[in-house]
Amino acid sequence: MSVSANQVRDVVSRALTTLQAHADELRSLDAALGDGDLGITVQSGSKAVIAAWAALPAEAAVSDLLLAAGKAFSTANPSTFAALVGGGLLAAAKTVTGKTEAGKVDKADVLAIGRAVAGRIAERGKSQLGDKTVLDALVPSLDVLDAGEGEAPQLLAAMIATAHERIDATAGQQSRKGRAAWVQERSVGHPDPGATAYLRFLECLRDAW
After folding, report:
1. What is the pTM of this model?
2. How much is the pLDDT for 30?
3. Nearest to residue 201, comparing CAs of 79, 82, 31, 43?
4. Domains in the chain, please, with CATH?
Protein backbone atom coordinates (compact mmCIF):
# COMPACT_ATOMS: atom_id res chain seq x y z
CA MET A 1 0.00 0.00 0.00
CA SER A 2 1.48 3.32 -1.08
CA VAL A 3 -0.04 6.61 -2.20
CA SER A 4 1.21 10.08 -3.14
CA ALA A 5 0.48 13.25 -1.21
CA ASN A 6 -1.98 14.35 -3.89
CA GLN A 7 -3.83 11.04 -3.60
CA VAL A 8 -3.99 11.50 0.16
CA ARG A 9 -5.43 14.98 -0.32
CA ASP A 10 -8.04 13.79 -2.82
CA VAL A 11 -9.24 10.68 -0.96
CA VAL A 12 -9.29 12.21 2.52
CA SER A 13 -11.02 15.37 1.27
CA ARG A 14 -13.79 13.25 -0.21
CA ALA A 15 -14.04 11.26 3.02
CA LEU A 16 -14.29 14.45 5.08
CA THR A 17 -17.03 15.76 2.80
CA THR A 18 -19.07 12.61 3.43
CA LEU A 19 -18.28 12.61 7.14
CA GLN A 20 -20.17 15.86 7.59
CA ALA A 21 -23.44 14.01 6.96
CA HIS A 22 -22.96 12.29 10.34
CA ALA A 23 -23.08 15.57 12.29
CA ASP A 24 -26.58 14.97 13.69
CA GLU A 25 -25.74 11.42 14.77
CA LEU A 26 -22.60 12.59 16.57
CA ARG A 27 -24.44 15.52 18.16
CA SER A 28 -27.05 13.14 19.57
CA LEU A 29 -24.44 10.72 20.91
CA ASP A 30 -22.50 13.55 22.50
CA ALA A 31 -25.62 15.13 23.99
CA ALA A 32 -26.23 11.93 25.95
CA LEU A 33 -22.79 12.15 27.56
CA GLY A 34 -21.58 15.73 27.23
CA ASP A 35 -22.47 19.11 25.80
CA GLY A 36 -23.53 17.90 22.36
CA ASP A 37 -20.96 19.89 20.39
CA LEU A 38 -19.19 16.97 18.70
CA GLY A 39 -21.36 17.08 15.60
CA ILE A 40 -20.54 20.71 14.87
CA THR A 41 -16.90 20.12 15.79
CA VAL A 42 -16.56 17.34 13.21
CA GLN A 43 -18.59 19.21 10.61
CA SER A 44 -16.81 22.56 10.93
CA GLY A 45 -13.42 20.89 11.34
CA SER A 46 -13.89 18.80 8.20
CA LYS A 47 -14.89 21.87 6.19
CA ALA A 48 -11.89 23.78 7.52
CA VAL A 49 -9.44 21.01 6.61
CA ILE A 50 -10.85 20.71 3.08
CA ALA A 51 -10.55 24.49 2.59
CA ALA A 52 -7.02 24.58 4.02
CA TRP A 53 -5.90 21.79 1.71
CA ALA A 54 -7.48 23.41 -1.32
CA ALA A 55 -5.35 26.50 -0.66
CA LEU A 56 -2.09 24.53 -0.64
CA PRO A 57 0.05 24.24 -3.78
CA ALA A 58 -0.10 21.08 -5.86
CA GLU A 59 3.40 20.10 -4.74
CA ALA A 60 2.55 20.20 -1.02
CA ALA A 61 4.10 17.34 0.94
CA VAL A 62 2.22 15.07 3.33
CA SER A 63 3.77 16.93 6.27
CA ASP A 64 2.31 20.16 4.85
CA LEU A 65 -1.11 18.51 4.65
CA LEU A 66 -0.92 17.33 8.26
CA LEU A 67 0.24 20.73 9.54
CA ALA A 68 -2.54 22.51 7.68
CA ALA A 69 -5.12 19.95 8.86
CA GLY A 70 -4.02 20.19 12.48
CA LYS A 71 -4.22 23.98 12.52
CA ALA A 72 -7.54 24.06 10.65
CA PHE A 73 -9.28 21.39 12.72
CA SER A 74 -8.14 22.73 16.08
CA THR A 75 -9.26 26.30 15.38
CA ALA A 76 -12.52 25.61 13.52
CA ASN A 77 -14.42 25.02 16.76
CA PRO A 78 -13.36 25.66 20.39
CA SER A 79 -13.86 22.15 21.76
CA THR A 80 -11.72 19.60 23.56
CA PHE A 81 -12.08 17.08 20.72
CA ALA A 82 -10.92 19.68 18.19
CA ALA A 83 -7.88 20.52 20.32
CA LEU A 84 -6.96 16.86 20.85
CA VAL A 85 -7.32 15.81 17.22
CA GLY A 86 -5.69 18.99 15.93
CA GLY A 87 -2.76 18.55 18.29
CA GLY A 88 -2.42 14.94 17.24
CA LEU A 89 -2.23 15.90 13.57
CA LEU A 90 0.41 18.51 14.29
CA ALA A 91 2.49 15.91 16.12
CA ALA A 92 1.99 13.46 13.25
CA ALA A 93 3.39 15.95 10.73
CA LYS A 94 6.84 15.42 12.20
CA THR A 95 6.73 11.70 11.37
CA VAL A 96 6.58 12.30 7.61
CA THR A 97 8.80 15.36 7.25
CA GLY A 98 10.78 15.03 4.04
CA LYS A 99 8.14 13.04 2.16
CA THR A 100 7.61 14.92 -1.10
CA GLU A 101 4.53 14.92 -3.32
CA ALA A 102 6.25 12.57 -5.73
CA GLY A 103 7.23 10.21 -2.97
CA LYS A 104 4.97 7.49 -1.70
CA VAL A 105 3.38 7.28 1.70
CA ASP A 106 3.29 3.62 2.69
CA LYS A 107 1.75 1.56 5.48
CA ALA A 108 4.65 2.28 7.81
CA ASP A 109 4.06 6.02 7.35
CA VAL A 110 0.33 5.67 8.01
CA LEU A 111 1.10 3.72 11.17
CA ALA A 112 3.58 6.34 12.33
CA ILE A 113 0.99 9.06 11.71
CA GLY A 114 -1.70 7.14 13.58
CA ARG A 115 0.57 6.32 16.52
CA ALA A 116 1.62 9.96 16.78
CA VAL A 117 -2.00 11.11 16.83
CA ALA A 118 -2.89 8.51 19.48
CA GLY A 119 0.16 9.38 21.56
CA ARG A 120 -0.61 13.10 21.61
CA ILE A 121 -4.28 12.49 22.42
CA ALA A 122 -3.28 10.24 25.32
CA GLU A 123 -0.75 12.79 26.56
CA ARG A 124 -2.92 15.90 26.32
CA GLY A 125 -6.12 14.16 27.37
CA LYS A 126 -4.38 12.26 30.18
CA SER A 127 -6.19 9.15 28.96
CA GLN A 128 -5.41 5.54 28.19
CA LEU A 129 -7.03 2.43 26.79
CA GLY A 130 -10.09 1.48 28.81
CA ASP A 131 -11.08 5.04 29.69
CA LYS A 132 -13.84 4.90 27.06
CA THR A 133 -12.42 7.49 24.66
CA VAL A 134 -11.48 7.63 20.99
CA LEU A 135 -8.30 5.73 21.94
CA ASP A 136 -10.32 2.56 22.54
CA ALA A 137 -11.16 2.44 18.81
CA LEU A 138 -8.05 4.16 17.43
CA VAL A 139 -5.28 2.13 19.05
CA PRO A 140 -6.70 -1.38 18.39
CA SER A 141 -7.43 -0.46 14.77
CA LEU A 142 -3.82 0.64 14.33
CA ASP A 143 -2.67 -2.68 15.80
CA VAL A 144 -4.77 -4.47 13.17
CA LEU A 145 -3.24 -2.30 10.43
CA ASP A 146 0.23 -3.10 11.72
CA ALA A 147 -0.40 -6.85 11.58
CA GLY A 148 -2.44 -6.80 8.37
CA GLU A 149 -1.54 -7.61 4.80
CA GLY A 150 -3.10 -6.52 1.53
CA GLU A 151 -4.25 -3.36 -0.19
CA ALA A 152 -5.92 -0.34 1.40
CA PRO A 153 -9.55 -1.52 1.02
CA GLN A 154 -8.84 -4.79 2.82
CA LEU A 155 -6.82 -3.09 5.55
CA LEU A 156 -9.52 -0.46 6.07
CA ALA A 157 -12.20 -3.16 6.31
CA ALA A 158 -10.23 -4.89 9.07
CA MET A 159 -9.67 -1.61 10.93
CA ILE A 160 -13.38 -0.77 10.72
CA ALA A 161 -14.40 -4.17 12.05
CA THR A 162 -12.03 -3.84 15.00
CA ALA A 163 -13.07 -0.27 15.80
CA HIS A 164 -16.73 -1.29 15.70
CA GLU A 165 -16.05 -4.24 17.98
CA ARG A 166 -14.17 -2.14 20.52
CA ILE A 167 -16.83 0.57 20.57
CA ASP A 168 -19.50 -2.05 21.24
CA ALA A 169 -17.36 -3.52 24.02
CA THR A 170 -16.73 -0.20 25.76
CA ALA A 171 -20.34 1.00 25.47
CA GLY A 172 -21.12 -1.04 28.59
CA GLN A 173 -18.39 0.69 30.57
CA GLN A 174 -18.49 3.92 32.54
CA SER A 175 -16.72 6.89 30.98
CA ARG A 176 -13.64 8.05 32.85
CA LYS A 177 -12.56 11.18 30.98
CA GLY A 178 -13.99 14.48 29.83
CA ARG A 179 -17.55 15.69 30.25
CA ALA A 180 -18.79 12.11 29.81
CA ALA A 181 -17.19 11.23 33.16
CA TRP A 182 -19.39 13.81 34.87
CA VAL A 183 -22.53 11.75 34.26
CA GLN A 184 -20.85 8.76 35.95
CA GLU A 185 -23.01 5.58 35.80
CA ARG A 186 -25.39 7.23 33.32
CA SER A 187 -22.64 6.90 30.71
CA VAL A 188 -23.04 3.12 30.80
CA GLY A 189 -24.87 1.82 27.74
CA HIS A 190 -23.80 4.67 25.47
CA PRO A 191 -21.00 4.35 22.88
CA ASP A 192 -18.22 6.90 23.14
CA PRO A 193 -18.98 9.77 20.71
CA GLY A 194 -15.34 10.43 19.82
CA ALA A 195 -14.67 6.78 19.07
CA THR A 196 -17.81 6.70 16.94
CA ALA A 197 -16.62 9.78 15.02
CA TYR A 198 -13.37 7.95 14.28
CA LEU A 199 -15.29 4.88 13.11
CA ARG A 200 -17.43 7.01 10.78
CA PHE A 201 -14.27 8.59 9.38
CA LEU A 202 -12.82 5.17 8.61
CA GLU A 203 -16.05 4.15 6.89
CA CYS A 204 -16.06 7.34 4.82
CA LEU A 205 -12.41 6.79 3.95
CA ARG A 206 -13.21 3.27 2.76
CA ASP A 207 -16.03 4.57 0.58
CA ALA A 208 -13.88 7.38 -0.82
CA TRP A 209 -11.19 4.92 -1.79
Report:
1. 0.89
2. 85
3. 43
4. 2-208 (1.25.40.340)
